[in-house]
Design brief:
The chain is mainly alpha-helical and 353 residues long. It has eleven helices and two strands, in the order H-H-H-H-E-E-H-H-H-H-H-H-H. Strands 1-2 form a two-stranded antiparallel ribbon.
């Protein structure tokens, strides 16, 4: 019987909204939630937690081989990723045709690389909102984290096969050392999303993912049953996204974020609260993976110039959230059919990360 970690679902949704606001505000000349990039590390932690729950025992016992594991992960991640890539291709084609842009001839190669989730390293600066960006995934910037998610999924599989879910502290320790070495050279742990700091993404994802693995092995023993503690921890986490302090970010990434997952892992809801948590969880991935091309379309063709920047950001955010809902439903239907499941789509449970 599948377990739905409803409180973690809600956190995923809130984290996706925070990332969206970070990008939308930043590309509209506003400084909202400047540290919401830490939400991606929350995603990695919860990914390690949920994949351990869903697959570790099956892999260790030989009931799920490599090809089967790759299939379920690609089935979970790729359909919406390809939707985001298509939207990104269309929006970037229009953006690169603007006066002064020189990226038009590079959009198709970027799409080909993107189809295989391969970084496309160039010296180009690609249009995005009021400015430009330099990113290895120019058609849909957040895809960088999908690349690292797939990478760490492979590491996870072979680690389970080799160790049977043992020695997680060694992996965490080595990744932590590598992460601080990367921090020394990069000056920030917030890496992986641009050409110059792409290498930081490897220790970053391994460390946080395996922190999630560790939390799963301990949450039944050390987890909390207090909804008050869970709520306060999430409120503090969201608050730290708005505090532009490196020291606060270190505290959040290495102490608060793991505690939030641990404090919420055993929290269950029912009734309206459960439905809200489920909805937030359902929209989290589609919102995260398509919000950038949606922004680009609205920025180009939305005729929103007469609005204040804050109003424009809130309106575009509302539109992105509304669009994420049918995308989540369509993704559920598609994955149910591709996996050979039958019956009403309402009975199909969303596979966790």
């Amino acid at each position: 019987m599948k377990v739905r970690f409803s409180s973690l679902d809600a956190i995923r949704g809130l984290a996706a909204i925070a990332v969206m606001l970070l990008h939308y505000a930043g590309r509209s000349g506003l400084d909202w939630m400047p540290r919401a990039w830490m939400a991606v590390d929350i995603f990695f932690i919860m990914s390690g937690f949920v994949l351990t729950h869903s697959y570790a025992q099956k892999i260790a016992e030989g009931r799920l081989n490599f090809s089967g594991f790759v299939k379920v992960r690609l089935l979970r991640l790729m359909p919406l990723y390809l939707v985001g890539l298509l939207l990104g291709y269309l929006s970037m084609t229009s953006s690169c045709n603007l006066p002064g842009m020189t990226c038009g001839a590079y959009v198709m190669p970027a799409a080909v690389y993107g189809m295989f989730v391969i970084p496309y390293f160039t010296e180009l600066f690609w249009p995005f909102g009021v400015g430009t960006i330099q990113t290895p995934f120019p058609l849909n910037g957040p895809a960088w984290s999908l690349f690292f998610e797939l990478f760490v999924n492979l590491v996870f599989f072979y680690w389970i096969v080799s160790t049977k879910n043992r020695h997680v502290w060694r992996v965490i320790g080595l990744a932590l050392i590598a992460l601080f070495v990367a921090y020394y050279f990069n000056g920030s742990i917030n890496g992986g999303w641009t050409n110059s700091n792409f290498y930081v993404g490897f220790p970053r994802v391994i460390y946080h993912f395996f922190i999630g693995v560790l939390i799963y092995t301990q949450y039944q023993k050390y987890g909390f049953n207090s909804k008050m503690i869970a709520f306060i921890s999430v409120a503090l986490l969201i608050a730290t996204f708005s505090v532009n302090s490196s020291m606060m970010s270190m505290f959040t990434l290495f102490i608060l974020a793991p505690f939030v997952v641990l404090a919420n892992a055993r929290i269950a809801f029912d009734g309206y609260a459960e439905r809200m948590c489920t909805w937030l969880g359902d929209i989290s991935y589609p919102l995260y993976i398509v919000h950038v091309p949606i922004f680009q379309f609205l920025y180009l063709f939305g005729h929103l110039d007469g609005l204040t920047p804050a109003t424009r950001v809130l309106l575009m955010g509302a539109i992105a959230i509304v669009l994420a809902w049918p995308l989540a439903i369509a993704d559920k239907i598609l994955r149910a059919r591709l996996s050979g499941k039958s019956g009403s789509v309402l009975k199909v449970q969303l596979e966790k990360y």
